[in-house]
Amino acid sequence: MRINIVHRETWLHHTNPSVKLLLLLVLFVAVVFIHNPNVLINLTIGFFILFIAYTGYPLKYVMLFFLPFLFIFISTASSMILFGNGETTWFRWGVIHITEESFYRGVHLGFRALIFALLGLTFALTTRPVYLFYSLMQQLKLKPKYAYSFLAAVRLVPIMIEEFQTVHQALKVRGVADERGIRGKLELMKRYAIPLLSQSIRRAQRIAVAMEAKRFTNERKRTFYYEMKLSKYDVLFFLYVLIVTLIAYYLAIAHPYLLIKDVR
Amino acid sequence: MERVAYVENLRLKFPGKERLLFKDLSISFAKGEKVLLLGPSGCGKSTLLQVLAGLIPHSIEVPMKAKKIKIPERFGYVFQDPDSQFCMPYVDEEIAFVLENLCVPRHEMNERIHDLLNLVHLSLETPHTNIQTLSGGMKQRLAIASVLALEPDVLFLDEPTALLDEEGTKAIWQTIKTLAADRTVIIVEHKIEYVLDFVDRIVLFNEDGEIVADGNAHEVFTVYKQMIAEQGIWYPNIWEEYKKPITAQQPFHSPVPLLRIEHLRGYRQKQEKIYVEHITIHSGEWIAVTGENGAGKSTLLQAMMKLIPTDGTFEWCGQPLQSEKQLLKEVAFVFQNPEFQFVTHSVYDEMAYSLRLEKRSEHEVNEKVNELLQLFHLTEQKDEHPYQLSMGQKRRLSVAASIINKHKLLLLDEPTFGQDAKNTFALLEWLEMYRQRGTTIVMVTHDEQIVKHFATRRWKIENGRLIADEQLVSEEKADVVFSK
């Protein structure tokens, strides 16, 4: 079983994975230090456009992938809105206490979560693991030992999913009932974990031996089938991020949606 | 004669084992030789191969000592399991991985990949093909292509066809024969039919890891044939010499159909993968389900047991099926990999499991389990963990545990796959014995000989459809048998 959805390759697919990764990490950190909700909302819109238009997947799937994160947005925002502290009370009922401050803080947190999700999804949808690790080896000097171990592990995932289904059927056939209670659930987890782990561990060991039999050593000197280079697309991606950020700040100052400038 | 690989006075012991696997073993290989290592399972053939390639002790840490050892400078090693020797997801990437290890410049890679794939006759639309979509035989040819990238003088082949069907096996040996010319080839293999005319030397081991015979292939094979047969090795004409149980293929019909299914459809990921208009199975039948890889044989079995989403009208012993549960109670299913269906921590508990589920008395359980332990030669192992058994024992256990509470119908997914001759025959004979007691057997198999010698009926599956349903035993013959 594999998740293989037909999609276009866009310029985002051609950016260098290491550059993309680093830039996103910088953004992740930066977003934590933004306290103006207007800026965050604008940034969200900017990255949402990137996500919808340039990941290359059909709109239906893009929205489907996005759905769980929308849920996170709502849950993050609502818990802060309903139970946070604040001075200007709007509504109070039992433990629920909505204040102006907690409302803005909730919205702010929600958008922050949304930006994380958008950036993460964009990265995941436009980066093949193989390219990522080749790029990490070439641009960021990751040791081949780690890179190829990860790639071998990625190969094991679909095999494990298949095995999981087989174990599920086998347990059904043997008459292992769904057990109730926490102890029962733990027991059931063990029933799945032991065969799956024992298969994977043995398989992993065999793959490791096979790799060494193919003269894979820990030396750094090697050639690369995929030569990952920097290109104009990386500049384009950098410019996109930069311009979105600038516009977000400009609009937040010139045309704010919310009057609050700092949620702290 | 130039020696390309040798070891003198090898001593090797697996941690936790009492005795040495090899005690002062010496063996050497000349350039260009084609050698077959034969011996019972567990005698250490594969381990020796790993020592000769230097994988032990460099990649696999096993304590060993040798007076002298020479590991070939350029060697290639092909492993048994097609699913656990690749580290990359695509065909071109996998071969490129080897080329990278050798520091082949990037601009030469595409051509080399192309040449290597041609060499092993692996014709793909594009080299950038997902390895998961290849059949087992194709995967093994890819494995050979990627070791050929190493330009080896010596090829180590560790049961490369053990997990392949007949067609895949033939193709692999064909490929190896064309490539081997001036290379030294050292082979461990249980199915020697296809290699016998290719090797010029056979080394025969006994259970204690000692060399019993070493010499010209034909001489060793003729002189030691009896011993080879006892070791459970598949040799040519084995089926002609095999004396099957006299009851085999004698019809055993009861008038009431055991299971009837109308318009059976089985789905995977919401797509219809199998459709059979009508199925009727009678007690005492042995139905062989045949067809190519991916035709839908396993899917059919899973649909018959409702393990996958299924449509259709089921009738059990003339009555409409009440629930899925009833099917699970009456029908036993044996998976290809027995490990997945073990649910307890000892052989005894494993056998007792389904009896205890039915809340039988412990006395009855004990009696029944001991009887089957004896029948399936597992008494000595009764306290061991199922995972610690040998492959043949695991298979026996999975069958024994499935049939212990007298299921009327037994579905088996390639139960003899990758088994040696001894285990295969033993298993078939047990199944036959149960069939005589009225159990119905539906079994997926690739082996024409099993169909020929044991099945009473054959289903041919193609593209998710039942395209042929033939009775292998005619009713007239049945009359003759019964009138005796």
TrEMBL record, chain A:
Tell me any Pfam family this protein matches.
CbiQ
Question: Per its UniProt record, what InterPro entries does this chain match?
Answer: ABC/ECF_trnsptr_transmembrane
Q: Which GO terms describe its cellular component?
A: plasma membrane
Q: Where are the transmembrane segments?
A: 21-54, 61-83, 113-134, 237-260
Q: What is the protein's membrane topology class? A: Multi-pass membrane protein
For this protein's source organism, the top of the classification is: Bacteria, Bacillati, Bacillota, Bacilli, Bacillales
**UniProt keyword annotation of Transmembrane helix present:** yes
The alphabetical list of record keywords is: Membrane, Transmembrane, Transmembrane helix
**Cell compartments where the protein resides:** Membrane
Its domain of life reads: Bacteria
Quote the protein name from its UniProt record: Energy-coupling factor transport system permease protein
UniProtKB/TrEMBL annotation, chain B:
Q: How does it sit in the membrane?
A: Peripheral membrane protein
Concerning SMART domains, the annotation shows: AAA
Pfam families assigned:
ABC_tran
Cross-referenced Gene3D superfamilies, in alphabetical order?
P-loop containing nucleotide triphosphate hydrolases (3.40.50.300)
Q: Where is the ABC transporter domain?
A: 5-233, 259-483
Gene Ontology CC? ATP-binding cassette (ABC) transporter complex
Presence of keyword Repressor: no
- InterPro entries in the cross-refs: AAA+_ATPase, ABC_transporter-like_ATP-bd, ABC_transporter-like_CS, ABC_transpr_CbiO/EcfA_su, ECF_ABC_transporter_ATP-bd, P-loop_NTPase
Q: Where does the protein end up? A: Cell membrane
UniProt keywords (A-Z) are: ATP-binding, Cell membrane, Membrane, Nucleotide-binding, Translocase, Transport
An example of a GO molecular function for this protein is: ATP hydrolysis activity
Family the entry assigns: Belongs to the ABC transporter superfamily.
Q: What is this protein called?
A: Energy-coupling factor transport system ATP-binding protein
Organism of this sequence: Thermolongibacillus altinsuensis
